[in-house]
Amino acid sequence: MFSLKRHFVLAGLSAIPLATASSHMIMGGLKPIVYERIDPIVNAGAVSGHLHAFMGANNVDQNADYDQNRNAQCTSVPFQDVDKSSYWAPPMLYQDQTTKTFTVMEPSFNIYYFFDRNGTGETVQAFPQGLRMVAGSPTRDTYNASNFADQAISFVCLDYSGTVSNNPAYAQRQDINFPDINMCQDGIRLQVFFPQCWDGVNLDSSDHKSHMAYPVDTYDGGHCPESHPVHTVAIFYEQIVPVSNFNYWGQGAYALSTGDPTGLTYHADFLMGWNQSVLQDSVDNCHNMNGDITLCQVLVPYINEDAASACTLDAQVVDEDVGLGDQISALPGCNPVRTDFSTEASCPNSVTPGFFNPVATLTPGWTDVGCIAEGTNGRAL
């Protein structure tokens, strides 16, 4: 019998520490609305090469675009009605040392919006309707210290006890393998900063990157190059993975859904689904929010965390088990664990699954009346 647990869990929101004072806001503690092998930007209309974790519009599928997202019934982020964007990135999976089976290490996400990363003389613009962005690459296996696109992907070992706080081996880094899980008692944080300079013309490009660029000063802010003169809102994802909940046995114990045990192939995608005028109004009027979304008065009327938590997927899904809550024999797709991504992996016996609709249909004559709560003094039925 098909179980919804194979693909998605209820979204939830929780508080996180606020960042340094600036004109930015944080949508914190987001849980994926679905784990699925689709990518409506890179592999539009088809099954994609590897698994992604999605937040945002509840009707996301392989054909998602701006108009479709805007028609979503709900979103798993706090801003109902106005932000129907889709946010996604590859999750990490744990590989059992004995059975060699894989399980998704269910993460939480924080999504940051910065309204003040522009250079002197520049104004920040809301994303154009339908903008698509990709940061990072699923085939990168080297690190170029002078490349802002490489610098924009980083990892942090989380240990709130302070045991490794002064150890440079566990500081934020981009150029070496994931930190030792045994020292990351509060998880590993995967980070990606998106380019924030738009060419002013194209909503996408053949490589899904050329229409966007990083600033000329640093990867996370500053002046835009002349080729990409429009400075948009800057967005930044954090994926917090509870690696300490799993028995670490060395490299290969956990890997991205691409098959990468190092982190170099980490990447993320963004499909704009905002009410553009509301986002621009927020950019123009919300300052010194310290990360707190409730300090942006433009957006306060749209915040509904209960609706975000109750929002569930309403779309077809790829017909395969993805290792959510159970074990699977291989990473979804053709993704053997490896460190060399210079050539495409070969899986001669692999079969591409189809799509199906997991939403049950009611028997004629029956009516859905919702759920009831069972009392504490006896059974409801």
UniProtKB/TrEMBL annotation:
Highest taxon above the source species: Eukaryota
Keyword annotations of the record: Signal
Domain DUF1996: 39-274
Xref: InterPro entries: DUF1996
Coiled-coil region: none
Position of the signal peptide: 1-21
Name of the molecule in the record: DUF1996 domain-containing protein
UniProt organism field: Phanerochaete carnosa (strain HHB-10118-sp) (White-rot fungus)
